[in-house]
Amino acid sequence: MPLRSAHRVAQIKSVTGAVSSSPHGDAPGAARLIRFAGLVMPIAAVEVPLTTYAPPLYAAIFGFDLVTIGAIFLIVRAWDAVIDPAIGVLSDRTRSRWGRRRPWIVAGAVFFVAGAAGAFFPPRGAGAITLSVALFTLYFGYSMIATPFAAWAGELSGQYHERTRITTYVMVMTALALLLALVLPSTLAVRLAGQPVTQLAAMGAMVFMLLAITLPLGLGAVPEPPLPTTPLPRLRVLETIGVVVRQRLLLRVLVSNLSVRLGQGIRTALFVFFVSVYMGRPALAPALFLYQYLFGIIASPIWLMIGRRIGKTRAAVTGELIQMMINFGLLLVVPGGWPLLIALTTAQGLAQGSGNLMLRAIVGDVSDAHRLDSGHDRIGLFYSVFSLSDKAGLALAVGIALPLVGILGFNPSHPNTPEALFALKAVFAIGPALAHLISALVIRGFPLDETRHGEIRQALAAREGTGAISPQP
User: Fold this and answer.
1) Total domain count for the chain?
2) pTM greater than 0.70
């Protein structure tokens, strides 16, 4: 780095570190961040079991085919296009003695519990409509928790790398939740083989336990920033859409993240089928998935260090290109080729959190840039559409991958031809590889680096000091 540039970065760090490390002057400590990040565990524990293990169980319990299951998930998650931005806008505008985010998280927990009860403890004879209603309620509560939580996490600090540190805690707690959620299926697959109703119920019990533990601990872990002194202006639906569409930097982050989630979702949706049918070892599918997430726990701290050294954008691009190569490598796996599959799964675990971590942290930086330009803090809206890109990627993955392999001849309930098995492997490998490549290409060269973000924070600090806009975190 040139001497002048290095001096500029150091100067910016000294100013932004002094005025914006957190809303209250000090970065939250590790213990408080662990409690706060624990709020993400129940919703993290729901996502993968529903998209990975629930489809085969629903097929066994209700007799649904893969096309029907894929359609149900796709239709239910399509409502998020309305729900997520609405919650983001409303939480930004909420003014209460408990803050902007806490009331939404508490209310969301109620819907989350009601929906999870229907999804994991379905009544006998339930059909596609009953299951769809339960999933809609669950994901509605999911959105009411996830979107305000993400905005709250983004508000805890305005410092470039501190945001990544906070997000790292969230990602680690997410990985721990997935680990807990996957330990159970790996055990149940052996002990409760042939009992899909009991397996589904046990997963639901795990989700309820996590919510009961983490909700009271997380809500009081860190304070919310002070409420804005000036309310946001009311915006109609089209005006809200216009705010998002005009944010070109945000759109790049959204498309990149959607591609990340699409790749991860295709791999997740087909993982059990690949290990169970293509590799011929159904009992090992949960254990291998669990093995991958063991490495995911240590992946986020590693990528935090990489991001500090080379910046968020370069770290995101590097991680996505590595994942592309890993997924293309799956084309070389043959039945019985366990050493190569285990090696690729290990690498996948170490690389999988890179894009998720960096892109999520970048959203807060983009919100700062918008705030400087407009004078309005819309971090909740921005994180809501980011969450929407998360869900859209995962929903598209399930809605595309399962019907596609079915159309290509794969059927998990009947013997498959070599051509059908190869089609399963091709979609499992090539789909995620291309998605991760697109993500890297979209975010490559992103202009909001540490230096530019520091300049934005300096300008915000100077303007807030004159009272031009309300003090924000």
Assistant:
1) 1
2) yes
